[in-house]
Amino acid sequence: MSITIALAGNPNCGKTTLFNEITGARQHVGNWPGVTVEKKEGVYKKDREVMILDLPGTYSLSPYSAEEIVARDYIVKEKPDGVINIVDGTSIERNLYLTLQILETRIPMVIALNMMDEVESRGDQIDCRKLSELLGVPVIPIVARSGKGLKELMEAAVDTAKGRKKPERAKFFDKELADAILSIANVIGKGDSDEDYWRAIKLTEHDEMITETVPEEKKKDVEALVKAADYMSSGDAEAKIADSRYQYIAGLVKECVRKSGRGHVKTRSDKLDQILTNRILALPVFAGIMYLLFACTFSENFLFVPGLPSPGVWLAGIVEDAWAFAAEQMVGAAESLGASEWALGLVVSCLDGIGAVVGFLPLVLVLFLLLSFLEDSGYMARVAFVMDRIFRHFGLSGRSFIPMLMGFGCSVPALMASRTLESDKDRKITMMITPFMSCGAKLPIYAMFAATLFADSNQTAVVFSIYMLGIGVAVISALVLNKFAFKSEASNFIMELPEYRVPTLKSVVIHGWEKVKGFAVKAGTVIFASTVLIWVLSNFNLGGMCDMEKSFLASMGNGIKWIFAPLGFADWRASVGVVTGWIAKENIVATFGQLFGNVSEETVAAVMAGEEALPAISQVFNQVSAYAYMAFNLLCMPCFAAVGAMKREYGSWKWTLRAVGFQMAAAYIVALFINVIGNMIF
Known about the structure:
- The protein is mainly α.
- 61% of the residues lie in helices and 6% in strands.
- It contains 32 helices and 10 strands.
- Strands 2-3-1-4-5-7 form a 6-stranded mixed beta sheet, sandwiched between helices. The protein has a two-stranded antiparallel ribbon with strand order 6-8. Strands 9-10 form a two-stranded antiparallel ribbon.
- Mean pLDDT is 83; it is low at 598-614.
């Protein structure tokens, strides 16, 4: 029979890194709390009968946020065959609090003492054998990033789970408190039942979720016993239980941990934080780092060297040349097979549409490799801390910036990450403004316009400003929503700042590959299907095959273009692009590739050299209207997948439609402002 082992631990203790190592899965590893927002399943790569679950990080089995509830409910209700409790060896005192709470459930458990390389580098020592004896469960030292100790860990975990080796019942409560808990357990069930005893502990702690499960006929007896426990605990049994755990942890640390004796020495993280979280320097440094990222991706004059392309631009040129050659061969093959004119037109149109997206894949790869490096290093957690100084003035905590940061990758997991927010108000506002971040799917839109209409400008500055525009509109929107829709005080901000770590090459490459693979899958499925549909709609009407200007698509575009006329793009093709972008934002580039023709960098270079006529896209847009178009698609309703994620997280269409309506209104107002003011200035 197969067995199930759950990975549980504090946020940022290395759960997802361990999960990736033992299952071969490719979950994103980020060096900040809140990366895993729902349980992930995988299979142990050395034993297909062992199922591994990566649970969201939690500091306690008394949950306060949605992802902590996911973790507790699985451990307590689903009852896995075993639990691997990952403990950060550099913060062992704090991490052991969750360890003791899992021990109270008496589920078979093994402790993975992680980051032992950092413990040793500090000159500290942890006696794992002694710690194992005192806790009554196996304690295995590991370094998840390098894979050290994982074989021994999994052998111990599988053996413990298969043998159903339960730890002994918690012995860190004094006799009075233990007797009070046992009395409550006997009222709600049986004192010798592990589940009833654990529920009795939670009732003594005044856990609301457990209190609601007490049958009506037993509530009075339970309330009386809980009050008696409070009385014996100087009025607060919950505090006494917590104090008992911390006293026990202090004893464990005294017995098993030997510090280097050097006192507090400034670590690398402390020294870096003097600059990166400095009240004056933090924001300029963040802006500078982000600008450098975009320069590495988009700059035609990298490091201010004329004619030296950035890595992103250089790779894009190679991919575009390769695609052009492949497309030429495919068209030639279709002609040699005697394809009809309409079939040949379909092939060329689809190749143009998909090629318009494929050409920008290297830019996506380079940008997200660099963003992944920052995430894994621990810097992005500092950005959330720094942003709290701004966000608290707008009714949000800096923790809301974490889903927004994830939104630079994809809005779907970013919206799911809003579960990490404790306040219902914070969650709702954050989900409304997170799609304002420039997800990877929007990047090809900016790259297309930058290459076509801003070829003689600083393309890096253009794209950078769009990303900053999203952040700015999000902050202003939070202020408006908090003032008029959610009238309440600003939320508290409590967040652990992880140590700075040099990301592993494997983690960074996996993250970048996942982004490129996602684009490639879309190009081969959603975008391909869309290009075929667009070709049909743009080449046919009720009378059969026709000129594009008389097609079904033109009729639909002309029917709605008046809506966008005040924004500066009153062309039916631009209107159609907005609509197809709701399927997938990359579709806008594919749509333009079909309706406007080739928009590659080679075409732009030829135009600048006077070798070709101006592309059709440049005849419809000028720089102001192009910027307004980018801003509108940055801020308007996200793709259908993201809307579905909003519905899932909000739990109702009412709030989802409110969010979509707010996003559409914000997009229209900002684009209108850009078009009006821009045309007054330029």
